[in-house]
Amino acid sequence: MDRNHERAARRADAAARRGERDGSGPTRDDHTVARFPGATAKFALLGEVLLVGVLVTLVGILIVTLPAALAAGTRHLRRFIRAEGSSLGLFFGDVRGALPGGLAIGAGAVLLAAVLAFDIVIASSGLLPGGALMAVVGWVGLLALSVALLAAAGLWSPQSGWRAALRTLPRSLADDIPGALYLAATGVFVGVATWALLPLVIPALGCAALAVVAIPERPRHRVG
């Protein structure tokens, strides 16, 4: 009998330890659940990031659908690291919810990006005076556009929609300038990775979605 009790206790302890690692429970009485239990399993998180990269690439392959894809991808990773439900059904549910307004944002972003790219090409041709300055303006504009898209994707939710995300976007970026710079670095990373080798866009987009989730949650040092 004692041996059976001992085995049961060991099984319960092992289950508690697993619950502590992934946030699913049960846990031991003296254990404090991690803030982001899904992030404690490093290999599982890596796999989920790569999966999200594949999903975002597939949904965003038309380019105009990329905002909706990023919004759904960030929400999927946010649920995963919080050890909430993170099924593919929820991801595609978010895609359906984000597509109506996301298509308009995607079309506007594509148009603006095309104008900025044309500006860079003309500036680089040497046909116009002040071409170097025009090229800088074009590149800065593309970078600002990538930051806005990433931040808006992180702010979108099915309840509030894209209008609320765009309304709160300027204040969100202004309140966290370092976070905006991190998003800019993320945009550069995606661009460079894609330029270096096209298939790298898949893990790059997964990492971008993770960055959108992680940057607002990072520890911050407040002055005063």
From TrEMBL:
Keywords tagged on the record: Membrane, Transmembrane, Transmembrane helix
Chain intervals for the UniProt region annotation (Disordered): 1-31
Highest taxon of source: Bacteria
Transmembrane parts of this sequence: 45-70, 98-121, 133-156, 180-213
Protein name: DUF624 domain-containing protein
Organism: Agromyces rhizosphaerae
